[in-house]
Amino acid sequence: MPRLILTVLLASVITGSQANAADPPPKLAQINHIIVIYLENHSFDNLYGLFPGANGLAQAANASPQTDIDGKPYTVLPPVKDTRFPADLPNRPFPIDRYVPADEKIPDLVHRFYQNQAQINGGRNDRFAAISDAAGLVMGYYDGSKLPLWQYAKKYTLADNFYQGAFGGSFLNHFWLVCACTPRYPEAPEEVRILLDAQGRLVRDGAVTADGYAVNTLQPTNPPYKPGTVTAKRLPPQDAPTIGDRLAEKGISWFWYSGGWNDAVNGHANKEFQYHHQPFVYFSNFAEGSQGRQQHLKDELDFIAGIDGGNLPAVSFYKPVGELNEHPGYADTLSGDRHIADIIGRIEHSPLWKDSVIIVTYDENGGFWDHAAPPIKDRWGPGSRVPTLIISPYAKRGFVDHTEYDTTSILKFIETRFGLEPLGSRDAGASNLTNALDLR
Q: Whole-model pTM?
């Protein structure tokens, strides 16, 4: 399959960008709690394509049809390998919940670094079905109005121009959430290296690029990691600075909370605990026995107790356990939506609410189609568009924010609020989410 050569540049949306260049808005210092909730594997069109006022499926009416690898449009979509779906779905978006309700699991879809680029196909987004093990399922969407988080999107702010930080899957996008970087593995053995031909086409998939960057899933060297993982498939500890390091250097409190963390550390992990969703574990500063781990990596139980007690840190990241993160294959969509709505409700009724900003977003598109062409930034991304909600007493009400964002915009928001140095060029140049807030 061809390597991505992006030829379509999405026009940059400059609304709100002036706020990034100017002094921070006056009320920004009143925000004392930033809470980032990181869900899994849905594109914007897949969940919010029907949202009123958003750039969704109505605007996709003239989008390119799905084509085969030679560029020929399909007559009907390639059949989904699940008998609950008809074998002759038309070559256009279709409602998943007509066939499988949101409280039932659907098959997983391929979501990897080079495949995501090939599916985007220069901004045409017309190779999702051809380059997927899920075939026509890539074109499925939900009636999101039936999901609990939709109600928060209606009440507060929905960002409809927010892109996953990097091409591909969860492993790499978790790194971009915490360090705006792609991890290095220069001594990776041949068995995990990706092989491209002279034209940049994928000959053999793997986890590590020819020049030593880890772009697909590897387990950490530091425990906890998936039992039985061979050394070659464990990423050496990383030393790049993280947002956690930046916060700690200035004495600003922060935690990464994860569902099932205590059980995983104690050797009896939940069967759906995802080790590669714990990005700080990959870094030397958070190795087993380190002060960084003891001080900053916590369990979901601590998160709930912190909400109910009104004593969360200045910055919180929350990763639900697998069965509640909405990842196709091992989780359904409705259970995760209900869980996060419950979390938000707890925060709304806690002393934290008055000075909090909650950001609910998805790590990546999970292999689902989205019609919007990602902007061109660098070798790593951004990838496809994902849903993002900004929920706060400071959030604009009933607002669809069209500002161009990506995952590093979350870092930029944290950096702007607390006066931190950027981690890299991407977060340094990102819009910082303040257009979603009323801070003047």
A: 0.94
